[in-house]
Amino acid sequence: MDNYLDGLNESQRKAAECIEGPMMVIAGAGSGKTRVLTYRIAHMVKLGVDPFNILALTFTNKAAREMNERIQKIVGDSDSRNLTMGTFHSVFARILRYNAERIGYPSNFTIYDTQDSKSVIKDIVKEFNLDDKAYKPGMVLGRISAAKNNLISAEAYATNEEILLEDKQSRRPELSRIYTAYVNRCQRAGAMDFDDLLFQTNVLLRDFPDVLQYYQHKFRYILVDEYQDTNYAQYLIVKKLAAAYENICVVGDDAQSIYSFRGANIQNILNFKKDYPDFKLFKLEQNYRSTKSIVEAANSVIARNKDQIKKEVWTENELGKPIVILRTLTDNEEGKVIANRIFDLKQTGEYTYKDFAILYRTNKQSRSFEEALRKLNMPYKIYGGLSFYQRKEIKDLLAYFRLTANPHDLEAFKRVINYPRRGIGKTTVENLIIASSSYNVTVWTILENMAQYPVNISAAAKAKLIDFVTMIKSFGAQLEQTPAYDLAHHIAKSSGILKELHSEKEKGPEEVERYQNVEELLSGIKAFAESIEEGEDQKTLSDFMLDVALLTDADQEKEEDKNKISLMTIHSSKGLEFPHVFLVGLEENLFPSQMSLNTRSELEEERRLFYVAVTRAEESCTISYAASRFAWGNLISSEPSRFISEINDDFIQHEHPYGEKVSSRSLSSKISEPTFQGGLNKRFSPAPKLRSLDSIKSGKTNSRVQEEHAALKVGYNVIHDRFGKGKVIEINGEGSDKKATIFFPKEGSKTILLRFAKLQILED
DNA sequence: CCAGTACTTAGGTTG
DNA sequence: TAAGTACTGG
Known about the structure:
The protein is built from 30 helices and 23 strands. By secondary structure, the protein is an alpha/beta fold. Helix 27 (600-614) links the parallel strand 15 and strand 16 (617-631).
C-alpha cells in the first residue's frame, strides 16, 4: 500500500478508506476533516475510480481549490483536473448553463446578486404602490429566499393557505404577488438569483429524467463538506444525484451549524439516517489544532446547548495558555489594545502577520481595529464586507459585460444606460419599463423594435437610445471571437468608463483608487485569458462572465495579501485556523446578537458561533469586550457577553488591557480580584441591569422601566416593537432573568427576556 | 436632466 | 456616524 494514507490516524484512516456506500463523518472542530476528504478522494483515484465520476461539494471555492491542490500532489495533475469540485452554487451554475434552455433560460443567463434582487423588488413595490416601509427589499427578499430554499415556487406560495395567512397576519398580504412578479421579472431578464441556482437545479433534475440520469451516472461518487449547513434545496439535489449509486459521503459537525438564517437545517443530518438506513457512521473526535485550554473552554460552552449530537472532542496537545479576557472602556480602546497585543507578540519574532486573526460578530466592528492597526503600521486584510466585486466602478464595468452577454439583463441596463452620462434620464427609463410591462416584452426587445412598440419618449432620447443599442450590439458581435481581455478593454474604453474615471483622476485618492480598481479588473481578465490549458479553446469574455458573480474576495487572494493580519466575521472564519485568535466585541446584544435573544434555538446558534470562533485558535485565544461603544453617533454602554461567564473558569484568565494580570496565574484558583478599571465588582454574572439599551435611548429612567416590568402580569395586553400586539400568558424568573411568554397572533408565542423587551402595556 | 443639499434612518451573519 | 433617499434650484 502506498504511504499517502500514513498521515492519518486510525479513525481518519477508516473513514478515508471507506469509499462505497452511504457514510457520514461527524467531525469535531480541528479533527482533520479536510485531511480525510482530501485523502479519501486521492485514495479513490489511486484505486482506479475515474476522477470524472467524483463530485465534491465544499463550502467555499477556496476550500475546493486548496483541496484540489493537495490531491494533485498525490494523484497528479491530469487526474485532479477532471474532478468536479466547488460550492453548490458554482458547480450547479455550470450545470445549469449546459441545460438552461430546457428550463426556459438562455445559457448565458445572468446571475443577479443581492443588490440586483433588491433593486427588482424595490421596483415592484413601487409599481404596486405598496408601503415601502412594510415591504422593505431585504425583508421581502428574505421571504422569497426562504421559500425557494424550501422549494416553494411562486405558484405554490400563492396557493398555500398557511403561508398566505401568515403573511396576512403580519400585514404583508402582498408578498405572494411580489414573489410572482419577482420571478417573472427575473425570468424575463434571463436572470437567476443565488437561490435560483439551487431551486432551478431541482427543477431541472425533477422535470428531465434524462438529465438526472446523466448526472447520476457522471457523479457516481459524491462528497459533501459542511453538511450541517446545507438547506433543503441542497439536500434534495444531493439525494437525487446519489440515488443511483448511493456512494455518498457527508461530513459535518452539528456543533458548527451557523447558517440557519440561510435555511440550513440540522434536520438534514437526521434525514440522512432515514434515507440511508444502512449508512456507516464515523466520528472524528481528536482535535489536532488547539491546546487543551482552548478545546476545553470551547467544550464547556457548547455543552450548554440542548440541541446536539453527543460527542467528545479531546486533544493530546499541551495545556497551553488560558483564554485571556480583556475589558476595555470603549470600542476604540478595544482596537488599540488588541493591536498592541498583536504588535507585542509580533515583536517576539516568533510569528508573522498571517498568524493573527481578529474575529467579530458584525462587519461594522472592523473599523476600530483597522484604525489601530494602521497607526501601528501593521498590514491587515479584511475579508467580506464590501468586496472588490461590489465596488461601484467594478459593478459598472461588469454591467456592461453582462449586458453584452445578455442584453435583456434589466438591472445591468438600468445601471449603465446613463453611466457615463449620455442624457438619458429617469423618466425615459421609467417609461421604457412601463412599456415593457404592458407589451410583456423586455426593454431590449422594445429598443430593438422601436417601430413595433411605440413608447412615450422624446425624439432626442430616442436617438441616444439607438446609439446605445448600436454600441452594445457591436460589443455583442465580438463576444465569441475576440479574446477576453481585448474585448473587455475595448468595452471599458468605448463605453466611456475609462475616460469618465480618468477625467476625475485629479480629484483625490479615492478617484485614483477607482481607476486602479478598474485596471485591476482588466488585468484580472488578462490573467484569466492567459490561463488556458493545453487543448482548450481561447477564453472569451463570456467565459469570464460565467461565474464572476460567484467569485468572492477570498477566491482572488493577491500574493501581497498572503502575509497579513486577518480581519473577518466569525461566519467567514469557518474552516480556517490561526495560531492567535482575537475574539472581540463579546457583549450582550452584540454577541449574542440582540435579535437572537427571543428563542432558545437562535441563542443556541449564537453559542455555536462562539464555539466556531474559539476553535479557530491553535495556540492562544484572547477575548475582549468594551464597556461602551459608539452606535449611531452616541455612546451606548454594554455588558459582558453571557458566553464569557459560560466558559469553565479553569481555562480563563482576566487580564488588564495594558499588561498586568488581574488574577493569579494559577488555572485552578477561582479568581475574582475586582481590580478592573472602572470597577466591576463581581465577576461576570450577567449583571442584573435593568437599564437596557432602549431605556437609555428613549430617555426613560431606570426605575420607570423597572416599574413597567414589575407591573406586567399574566393576562395583560402588550405591544412589542417587532411582534406587534400580544397577550402575556406566563411570567417567570427574577431580576435580569425575568421572562414573559407572550402570545402574538401574528408570530405565535415567544418567550422574551424582559430586560431586552421593548414592551408597552396597553391601558385597558 | 443633473448636482448639491437636507433629511432620515439604520437591528446580522453569506453564496 | 454614515449611507442612502428625496427634494430643489439651476
